[in-house]
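Notes on consecutive records. When two proteins share a document, each keeps its own sequence and its own token line. Never mix them. Below: protein one.
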Amino acid sequence: MSLLKRFDEDLKAAMKRSDTISLSALRMAKAAIKNVQIDKGRELSDEEILSVLSSMAKQRRESIEQFSKGGREELAEKERQELAVLQSYMPAQLSSDEIEKLIVQAIGESSARSEADMGRVMKLLMPKVKGVADGKWVNNRVKELLSSSGTSA
């Protein structure tokens, strides 16, 4: 079943359950997908839909961070719940250990020696972790590994 059809069915189910969080998250996701479809002038593939969901998840994580810093825990919690709904449609996230292995492998493949080589590492790494890991976290971890050891390969 395509992701779009699954959205429609889950949207109907959320309406019947009066699940306001799922309803809100699914409606926002459908609207974002529809906007991209209009921009592209065609139906989106499941991979393109996952890319839209990934962007929305990133926005939720940033909002959670900002709301938490601002002391608005009730809003942060709402964002966390919506993020959980979005993530249920995305591939399973990689564990920290799995990401760490991929980072070390990419550092080795790129022969990176310092933070100046970070672009080469990220170029190899991002296609492997796109949609299954938080890019900001991956970026920070690569930076830590390159700056702490000078050589992690």
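Protein two starts on the next line and is unrelated to protein one.
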Amino acid sequence: MSIDDEGVAAALEAIDAVRRYYSDKGIFEPTFGFGQRPALLVIDMAYGWTDPAYATGSLRLDEAVAGIQRLLPLCRANRVPVVYTTSPFRAGEEDPMHARETGQYRCWDQHACEIDARLTPAPGELVIEKETASAFFGTHLAAYLIQQKVDTLIVTGCSTSACVRASATDSRAYRLHTIVPRQCVQDRAPAAHEYNLFDIDAKFADVVDIQVVEGYLRKRGEVCV
């Protein structure tokens, strides 16, 4: 058994214990459900996170990419707003978010901030540069969603334990129906991925199978036709 497998097994055991505790206490059980007007948020799927040449891209995030690729055509066909986030790059300035990269990795550069070509934004789709983990903090995301009359935010991208979690937490704070399709988010540490999905689902969002989201988007498309 690999270290990752051992970590996941330990995380799942801990999750089961916490789930039983919540169930016994009768807390964190309701779901939030879907609303009527969704948007898709694609968090930090830029080369800095998907290219192993960078310290933050220690894996290609192929699973999350494949999941997001399934949702993008449905969103675009049904006129669902799609918003991407990435980090800003300022030549000559140290970025505190990525300052801990070591010499064995490529230095953080403009390419690191470009959205992976596998998920290229379509013309007119919003790309937001954010300075911190949450897609909301210090950005105009909330104002944009209000302008679009969005009440449901489908959160995808990386990483589950950091930017996805922070964005889902803030999304709930704005009283949005917050949905996390589990096949569309990923983390460098599988154990952290599993535990954070559980905790996000318990407190801030509905973590669901991607097929549930696909069904919702198709049904919404039929209503809009």
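For the record: The chain has one domain: 3-15+33-224.
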